[in-house]
Amino acid sequence: MDPVFTLQWPECLLAEQLQRLFPKLKNFSVLVPASRQEKGIDLAVVHKRPDGESRVALLQVKASRTYTPSPPKRATTQRYRFFTWFNAFEPSDHADFFLLIGMYAPNSAQTKPVAKDWYRDITLLFTYKEMKVFMENCRTVGGKADGKFGFGFDDEACIVQTRGDQMRGNADFTHHLLVNRLDDLRTHLRA
To answer: pLDDT value at position 60?
Structure first.
């Protein structure tokens, strides 16, 4: 066992966000497993109820680099400013929810020092069932299982799937943004 406890930056960032969204004053706690070997669980949100019982949501985090594409050769080609690139995976049935996070710099040309809140992220929330279906449908144009999937976006207003969709239909996943799915997480914690 490593003598030092470390936490990957995306998990740390999401734990901090979840603490703001689910505050201690409202009887919530965000927990991090002490073991990096915990299967399928990277974070947990616990709701402590007045009757002494607790409800927990187990979360698995998947992170992506975010890429800025080169300018298109043709004026008619439309590209998004940013693209994520995830490895396909088998969703763990130990997790209740999956968080897909892509971090990016909104202005990569800026050369002056910036504060940590200058960087942005898009985080998509999927239930276990949704992630299972999504991964089963992650296909190449030829219909084979795709080892990668990704999303394209200009900003947080519109997130579309750009890889892993056999039809390449640019399916809109904006509704999966964490901020748009908080009620799903709250409902799970109230059940």
So the answer is: 96
